[in-house]
Design goal:
- It is a single chain.
- With 396 residues, the chain is mostly helical.
- The protein has a single domain (15-392), classed as Glycosyltransferase, CATH 1.50.10.
- The protein contains 13 helices and six strands.
- The strands form three sheets. The chain has a two-stranded antiparallel ribbon with strand order 1-2. A two-stranded antiparallel ribbon has the order 3-4. The chain has a two-stranded antiparallel ribbon with strand order 5-6.
- A hairpin with a 5-residue loop joins strand 3 and strand 4 (255-257).
- Helix 9 runs parallel beside helix 11 (314-328).
- The longest helix has 21 residues, at 372-392.
- The N and C termini lie far apart (46 Å).
C-alpha cells in the first residue's frame, strides 16, 4: 500500500540561494545569499548533503557502539526539509534500520540510554508523518510515559514503587526508575511527546512541570533548600542537586549550584510545553537568566569553574536554545547591557561561519560532539528551528 506522504513545509529560497549553491559547488564564495532565511537554507542543504554522504552500508548513521539516536537525529533533520521525503529509498531504509532496534517493551535503543534513544526516535517518527510507523511510534510513546516518575504505576517492571509528589524526582525522566530524574532526559522526552502531538494539559507535561520547577534556581517557586535566585536551571534537584557547571558560595555563605545554558533552555522549553505564560514568575526568572547570559560563543556557565569546558555540549546547546526560543515566541532578546539580539539571525550566522567546507560541524569530545555526524545533525536541527521561526515571525 502506498505510503501517506508528509506535507512538506514550503520554504521560499529565492534566486540568491540558487546562486549560492552553485557558488559552493564551484568554489566561488563571492556570491552569498543575503536574506537570513536563504542563508539558513544554504547552510542546511550543505549539512544534509554531508549527512547523506555518510550513511552506512547498514543504512544507519551511527558508528560502532554509537547509540541509534544518532540515526534518529539525522532522519529527523531530513524529514524537516521540504526537499526530502520518507519515500526516498535511502531514508526509507534508514527508518527500517532505526526501527530494527525496537524491543517488545516499545523502547528503541541498544544500550542503557533508553530514554534518550527512544525519545529521539519518537521525534523522528512523528515528524515523518508516515502512517506506516504509527504502531511502532505509539508503542515507544507508551514506553516513555511508563518511564516518567509519577504516583501511578504503569506497565514497566522497573516501576516497583509509586513516587510521592514531594519527591524531587516526581514528574521527571531519567535513565530509568531506579536512579534519579534529570533535566536533560526530561526535556528530550518532552520533545518527543510534543512532536507526537501531546497537548500542554496532558498529565505528562503537568507532572513534568513540577520536576523542572525543582531544577530552577528560583527560591520563590522551588521548594528545594539549595535553590538560588538567578533564574537558571541545573541538571537535577535530588540529593542536594547537581550541576556539571559546578558550585559556588553565595553572598550569604550558602553553597549554590551554578546554572548553565543548555539546562536553562531545556527548563524554559519544558515550561512553555506545559502551558505556562510569559507572565509566570518561573518563566520570567528564566527569561532574565537568558538575557543576562546571552551568548553563542559557549555553553554559558560551563566555563565558570573550568574555562576549558566552556564549549562542552555546544551543539546540544544550540539545538535546545533554538527549540526553547521558538516555543517562547520572542525573536529579540535584550541583554543586560541593553543590546538587542535577533537570536535567529545570530544563530544562523554563527553556524554558517563555523560550518566545514564539506558541510559538517564538529564540537568537543565531551558528550560525543567530536563526532561530525552527531554535531552536524544537531546543527542542522538548530538551523531548522531558526528557519521555521523566521517564517512564523519575519524580520521587521
Amino acid at each position: 500500500m502506498r505510503r501517506v506522504r508528509r506535507l512538506a513545509s514550503s520554504v521560499s529560497v529565492g534566486f540568491t540561494l540558487v546562486l549560492a549553491i552553485a557558488a559552493a559547488a564551484s568554489g566561488d564564495v563571492t556570491t552569498q545569499p543575503s536574506a537570513p532565511g536563504d542563508r539558513a537554507e544554504a547552510t542546511i542543504e550543505k549539512g544534509l548533503g554531508y549527512l547523506k554522504s555518510r550513511q552506512n552500508a547498514d543504512f544507519g548513521w551511527q558508528e560502532g557502539s554509537d547509540p541509534p539516536a544518532i540515526t534518529a537525529l539525522v532522519l529527523k533533520a531530513f524529514m524537516q526539509n521540504s526537499h526530502y521525503d520518507p519515500e526516498n529509498p535511502f531514508l526509507d531504509k534508514g527508518f527500517d534500520r532505526l526501527l530494527s532496534y525496537q524491543k517488545p517493551d516499545g523502547s528503541i535503543s541498544a544500550d542503557l540510554l533508553a530514554t534518550y534513544n527512544t525519545a529521539i526516535a519518537v521525534s523522528a517518527l512523528a515528524v515523518s508523518k508516515e502512517a506506516e510507523y504509527k504502531d511502532q511510534m505509539d508503542k515507544a510513546v507508551k514506553y516513555l510515559r511508563d518511564l516518567q516518575w509519577t504516583d501511578k504505576i504503569e506497565g514497566l517492571p522497573q516501576q516497583s514503587k509509586k513516587v510521592d509528589p514531594s519527591d524531587p524526582n516526581y514528574g521527571g525522566f531519567g535513565y530509568g526508575r531506579q536512579g534519579r530524574a534529570d533535566d536533560s532526559n526530561t526535556n528530550i522526552a518532552l520533545d518527543a511527546l510534543k512532536d507526537a502531538g501531546m497537548k500542554s494539559d496532558d498529565p505528562a507535561f503537568q507532572a513534568a512541570l513540577k520536576f523542572v520547577t525543582r531544577c530552577q534556581n528560583n527560591s520563590e517557586t522551588n521548594d528545594q533548600k539549595w535553590a538560588g535566585d538567578d533564574g537558571g536551571f541545573v541538571y537535577f534537584p535530588a540529593d542536594g542537586g547537581s550541576s556539571p557547571a559546578g558550585e559556588y558560595i553565595g553572598p550569604d555563605g550558602r553553597k549554590l549550584l551554578r546554572s548553565y545554558g543548555s539546562m536553562t533552555y531545556a527548563g524554559l522549553k519544558s515550561m512553555m510545553y506545559a502551558g505556562l505564560t510569559k507572565d509566570d514568575p518561573r518563566v520570567k526568572a528564566a527569561w532574565k537568566w537568558v538575557a543576562n547570559n546571552w551568548t553563542l560563543d559557549e555553553n554559558p556557565g560551563m566555563g565558570a569553574s573550568d574555562p576549558k569546558a566552556a564549549d562542552s555540549g555546544l551543539f546540544y546547546y544550540y539545538h535546545t536554545l533554538a527549540r526553547a526560543l521558538r516555543a517562547y515566541g520572542e525573536p529579540v532578546i535584550t541583554d543586560s547591557k541593553g543590546k538587542q539580539h535577533d537570536w535567529r539571525i545570530e544563530l544562523i550566522d554563527k553556524l554558517q561561519a563555523t560550518q566545514g567546507s564539506d558541510g559538517s560541524f564538529a564540537g568537543t569530545q565531551k558528550w560525543m560532539e567530536n563526532k561530525p555526524i552527531l554535531a552536524t545533525a544537531l546543527g542542522v536541527l538548530a538551523l531548522q528551528e531558526a528557519q521555521g521561526d523566521l517564517l512564523e515571525h519575519p524580520v521587521k
